[in-house]
């Protein structure tokens, strides 16, 4: 089998969590989800309205399909999660546990979207130390997960969070999924 065919097959499976079992989760508020990994580590997932997180910078996309002049920011959310109380990279994980973590996050996101009037989800990775600096590997993973798991009426585009005006020295690349 040619290398190109093998890579195509492997790359088509990135983000496909259909055979992975999610962990049980709960909510502490309409915007806050949580669950425990098999080792007992607490994972918290938060959906912050863009209108409340704009203090972190300016959210933008160049997508022509995203009509920025006619958007209701109260229906747009920044999705973020922390593992074990930190946005640092979760390093205690094997592949099975990591996939269950991702699957549970995807299930929580779907639950949130189904229960709320969500026009857009803004998704940005932080670097391995937890700083708002972006992480290319995480962005690739988040893109694959988003493409394979969001409802069909959403589309996706590259996004930017410019945090320079609020004291950070960074412009972070990520994704926006919107309808």
Describe this structure in words.
This protein starts with a helix and ends with a strand. The protein has an eight-stranded mixed β-sheet. With 179 residues, it is of the alpha+beta class. The chain has helices at 3-13, 50-53, 95-115, 136-149, and strands at residues 25-29, 32-36, 42-49, 58-60, 76-83, 120-124, 155-162, 171-178. A hairpin with a 2-residue loop joins strand 1 and strand 2 (32-36). Helices cover 28% and strands 28% of the residues.
The helical percent reads: 25-40%
- The protein's oligomeric status is single chain
Q: How many β strands by DSSP?
A: 8
Backbone shape = globular
Average of the residue pLDDT scores: 77
Main sheet summary: 8 strands, mixed
Determine Rg (CA atoms, Å): 16 Å
> First CA to last CA: what distance?
40 Å
Strand content: 25-35%
Strand order of the largest sheet: 1-2-3-5-6-8-7-4
Number of helices: 4
